[in-house]
Amino acid sequence: MEATQAQDRIDTALTYIEDSQTELSLLLDHYEDVVRECFEQLGGREAMQPADQEREAMYSLAETVNSDLDQCVKGLSAMIEEINASSAPPGAGGGDLLGEVVKVLNEQLVSLGWIDEASSKFEERITKLEREARGVSEGFGS
User: Fold this and answer.
1) Mean pLDDT across 115-127
2) Could you give the number of structural domains in the chain?
3) CA 129 to CA 110: how far, in whole Å?
4) 2, 47, 105, 128: least CB-packed within 10 angstroms?
5) Domain carrying residue 136
6) What is the pTM of this model?
7) What is the full DSSP assignment across the chain?
8) Beta-carbon neighbour count of residue 88 at 10 Å?
């Protein structure tokens, strides 16, 4: 009961935050349009310095990445909601099975993290050895 009330308060807060973000996004879109119009009146891309063009390209890339991340978050949220909706209440036969699946998946995730970390360390060692080998071969070549 208490957890349900806490979840309701969290959901309400999240809804408020989402609404605020939507409103802020609309304001920012308006300001971006105004700035874009001013920018075009001043000569557009042709009047930009190379650093400005690079900054503009990075900004565009950041917007694309942000959009992609938003889509991923929405997909993950939907997936979590589906999992939560399909999970059986505690004490039911299916709840234990789901718990076991989650436990196995978490263990696999930890293992994958260890493999990633070990491969990164191994790659660093190989790079270091390659640099040392180049240094030795350059020393003999002199």
Assistant:
1) 88
2) 1
3) 29
4) 2
5) 90-142
6) 0.33
7) -HHHHHHHHHHHHHHHHHHHHHHHHHHHHHHHHHHHHHHHHTTGGGG--HHHHHHHHHHHHHHHHHHHHHHHHHHHHHHHHHHHHHSPPTTSHHHHHHHHHHHHHHHHHHHHHHHHHHHHHHHHHHHHHHHHHHHHHHHHH-
8) 13
Question: Does a structural domain hold residue 60?
Answer: no
Average model confidence (pLDDT) across the chain: 82
> 104 in a domain, yes or no?
yes
- The angle subtended at Cα 112 by Cα 106 and Cα 115, nearest 5°, is 145
First to last CA, the chain: 79
Q: What is the pLDDT of residues 7-64, one digit of tens each?
A: 888 889 999 999 999 999 999 999 989 988 887 787 766 666 778 778 888 888 899 9
In the block, which residue shows the tokens 């409103």? 23
Q: Is 46 part of a structural domain of the chain?
A: no
How far apart are alpha carbons 45 and 64 in whole angstroms?
20
Q: Are residues 102 and 113 in contact, defined by beta-carbon separation less than 8 angstroms?
A: no
pLDDT at 50: 79
Assigned domain for 23 exists: no
